[in-house]
Amino acid sequence: MTDVDADADADAPARAAAVAPGGPWKGWAAVSAVSLGIFCLITSELLPVGLLTPVGDSLGVSDGTAGLMVTVPGLIAGFCAPLVTVGAGRLDRRLVLCVLIALMAVANLAAALAPDFAVVLAARLLVGVSVGGFWAIAGGLAVRLVPERHVGRATAVVFGGVPTASVLGVPAGTLLGELGGWRTAFAAVAALGLVTLVALLLLLPALPADRSIRVGELPALLRDNRAVRAGVIVTFLVVTRQFAAYTFVRPILRDVSGVDAAYVSTLLLGYGVAGVAGNFLAGARDPRRTLLVVSAALTAVLALIATLPGAVAGTALLLAWGLAYGGVSVSLQSWMIRAAPRTAEAASSLMVAMFNFAIAAGALAGGLAVDGLSAPAAPLTGAALMLAAAVTIGTTSVSARRREPAAGIPDHPRGAVGADRVAEADRAVGAEVPYKTDG
How far apart are CA 296 and CA 315, in angstroms? Predict the structure, then answer.
């Protein structure tokens, strides 16, 4: 028996026990509940995007200052992704996810009742705790809920909650804000959080921790694993670019494209539909190649939407924007699973931390650009960052093919074993294997 066979036999009982009991439909029901949780949290995090002007007008702050409603939870989520993952220790992951969703519901209710902007920001801080912790843990759960051959599809379903939040969550929140006031929108998300909590309690099986993660493992993973390190850098560049522009999509559509405010929620719906399509198109593809195409496309789209006037052009570019960005979350998660298949939860926590730091950095950079210059400055800032991301991804792809024996596995005499494990992880996420080793 080879070392690979021995390892596979040793891991087989754990994998079998991890898959949700009760048949395939229960596994997919659990995946759907996790996806609903991601949808609820991303809706909560991005809800202010469609409500910046109403909240700012109501509480007496500028659009740039109102953008802190996106910056604050992004910063907190970035810190909490690794901290919650480490702090959860041996706790059942089902319990942790339920507590985080309940916290999000309470935070949105507090925002709905807030008397001033300071209280809103405090509530948004709690949203950040929920987003960071939930996403870091949920990102790697697909492998524990469905058979191995379905992991790629299940991962795409889980992360389908991200663009679906743009399709339904943000536009619905914007519409509710227009019809009943921005406080109604926050209250509705709080109610959705309670529904999600019930779904998790009913559909998610017990998920005891595979292993506890020590604080020292996270910096060691960054230091020793080049693929993980590159993925974290790419995450920062891509997501900062996105939110430097997307946080201020409403003033951009108004000032550059000349779109009437009454049509903004409809256009955001179209953006989200395109994003869902992009998510599932990217789910089964090589993440490096996908991110390279996405970054190149978005560089052009953001430069054009900042300079090309007209509602027709603005609408077409917004749809192209949604289609391209829709593949980012699932591709980044697939990248990290491939880079560190044996420590996927730790790698995911690093990606989620940087993802949310980048949301905060992008919203802050966009706010400074909008307040200091004009609305078109936000997408132009994003275009410059995306160009840097495209160069980084391209360079990383070449580097990996030439030098790295297997992403996430150090070069040692058992390199062939590491390569086989990476190949197995690649098949699990439905991706091609872009490089191989001779062992």
Answer: 20
